[in-house]
Each structure stands twice: as C-alpha cells, then as structure tokens.
UniProtKB/TrEMBL annotation:
GO molecular function terms attached to this record: isomerase activity
Keyword Isomerase: yes
InterPro entries: IolE/XylAMocC-like, Xyl_isomerase-like_sf, Xyl_isomerase-like_TIM-brl
Pfam family, one: AP_endonuc_2
SUPFAM superfamilies per the UniProt record, alphabetical: Xylose isomerase-like (SSF51658)
Keyword Isomerase among UniProt keywords: yes
Signal peptide as annotated in the record: none
Protein name in UniProt: Sugar phosphate isomerase/epimerase
Length: 279
C-alpha cells in the first residue's frame, strides 16, 4: 500500500513539474510584413533571409509594393515561410471583395485582415454602423470563397457607447459566420482596453493576434496612433504579455504575428523572440 501511495505521489510531482516547465508560448513564430517595410525596399531577398534566420515560419502579408504577389510567394516558399493571413485596405475588401479573395488564394491565405476603418477626427457610432454593414457584406463573399474576414482593432473603437464601447457594438452586430477579429494587443491597450480580458470577453471571435508592446509612460488615448518609436520589445513595455498569451491560448488563436513598427525593430525583434521563448 505504501508503495502505491508513493508511486501516486511521485507521478503527481512529475505532472506538476512538467506543467511548470511547459513553455507558455509554443506556437509557430510569425511576423507582420509591415515590420520590414523599409528593408523590403532595399532587398526583398535579404530581408526574407533575415526573417528565416530568426526562426520565423509565418508572415502576414501581403507582398511589398516592389515585387509581385506571385514572385513574393515563390520567395517565401523557397524559405519555408507560409502566409496564413494578408492585410488589405478597407475599400479594397468592401468594394471589390473578389479581388481580396484572388490575392488571398495566390498566397494560400485563409484570412484577410482589415486594420483601419475610414473615419474623421473621432470614430463615431455612424462609422461603426457603416463598418458593420460593409464587413457583413464583404465577409459573406469571402466566406463563400473559403476565406475568413478579420477586423484588426486599432484603438479608436474603444470610445464609450451605451453600456460598452464602439468595439463592443462592432462585435455584437457583425455576423459571426462572416466576420472574425484579429487582436492587436498594443492598440487595444492604447485605446484603454485590457487585451487579455477582451480576448476572453469574445472567446469565439478571435482568430489572429499581433504581438506588440508599448513604451512605459505613454498615455492611452482614442486616436489610434502613437509615435512608432513607442513600439518596444515584448516584455519591456506596459502590457502584461503572459496574461495576453494565456488568454490567446485559451480562446484558441493559432497564428501569432510579431509586429514592430519601430526603426529599432532589427535590434528589438531578437529580444522579443528571446522573451517569448523564456516564458
């Protein structure tokens, strides 16, 4: 009997130890192509070689302006980098959704992401209502062609509306069959939201995430903009990254894209990757 009790105790200790040692971030490393917008203009090949050397195997596109989608896809394939998602302009997606479908299929992408809703100085309920109608219509076309439309939050949507925010309005009034979401953790935080809690609030709607952190001391606002130098390596800014990753894992996000708009991204991205692997 004592041997049995000891065996059970030993297995329990081993189980707890293995859980403790299990990395928090164990998904494929991805990057948003906008991170390398300046580098791509100098050399697409050299930039992609750098991406590959970092151990990155996924990229959110689309292609840089100085190379065709077909050629860029070929170069990605040669380096073992896939493109599960592409980001496109609101007007392209909402007025010519079949063009978005065509480009997504060129890259083998399953998601098309829109990161900005056109609006004036302040994002209003009328802007939100128009976006809801446009996203539902375009998302239906994309869904019928095997592509999922995702809206990427940008911070200005967290203004108060009724008992929640304008972002809540967008989520609740878009059709889940046609419209999903990409979490940008920096912009959610900068707009005054808690990225981890927001993921858990709508657990079935999120498909993708941008991994970003914001410099300590930067105040939140609803502009949807901040100096690009305020993008910092993960774990050095204001955001509770482990809590966001736990929430992202819980809601089933499969694609994680590092996005670093800073001019110091070349130095910061290796630090971000090292931090992610340390968790």
């Amino acid at each position: 009997m004592k041997k049995l009790v000891f065996a059970i105790y030993a297995l329990t200790i081993l189980s707890c130890s293995s859980q403790k040692d299990k990395p928090l971030f164990d998904m494929p490393l991805g990057v948003q192509s906008y991170t390398y917008r300046a580098s791509f203009l100098n050399s697409v090949a050299a930039t992609l070689d750098t991406v590959k050397a970092l151990g990155i195997t996924e990229m959110e596109g689309p292609n840089p302006k100085n190379i065709s989608p077909e050629e860029f896809k070929k170069m990605l394939d040669e380096r073992g980098i896939s493109m599960p998602s592409i980001g496109l302009d609101y007007n392209i997606v909402t007025t010519t959704p079949l063009e978005a479908v065509k480009l997504a299929k060129t890259f083998g992408s399953k998601y098309v992401m829109v990161a900005w809703i056109p609006h004036g100085k302040t994002f209003t309920i009328d802007d939100a209502k128009k976006a809801v109608a446009d996203f539902n219509a375009a998302g239906k076309v994309l869904q019928e062609n095997g592509i999922t439309l995702c809206y990427h939050n940008h911070g200005y949507e967290f203004g108060q509306y009724e008992t929640g925010t304008l972002f809540d309005y967008i989520v609740k009034n878009t059709d889940p069959k046609y419209v999903s979401f990409e979490m940008d953790m920096l912009w959610a935080f900068h707009g005054g939201a808690d990225p981890a809690k927001l993921l858990l609030k709508y657990p079935t709607r999120w498909k993708l995430i941008h991994l970003k952190d914001i410099r300590k001391g930067v105040a939140n606002d609803l502009t949807g903009g901040t100096d690009i130098k305020n993008d910092v390596a993960l774990g050095t800014g204001q955001i509770n990254v482990p809590e966001v990753l736990k929430a992202a894992k819980k809601v089933g996000i499969k694609h994680y894209f590092i996005e670093d708009e800073s001019p110091d991204h070349a130095a910061q991205i290796p630090l971000t990757i090292k931090y992610l692997k340390s968790l």
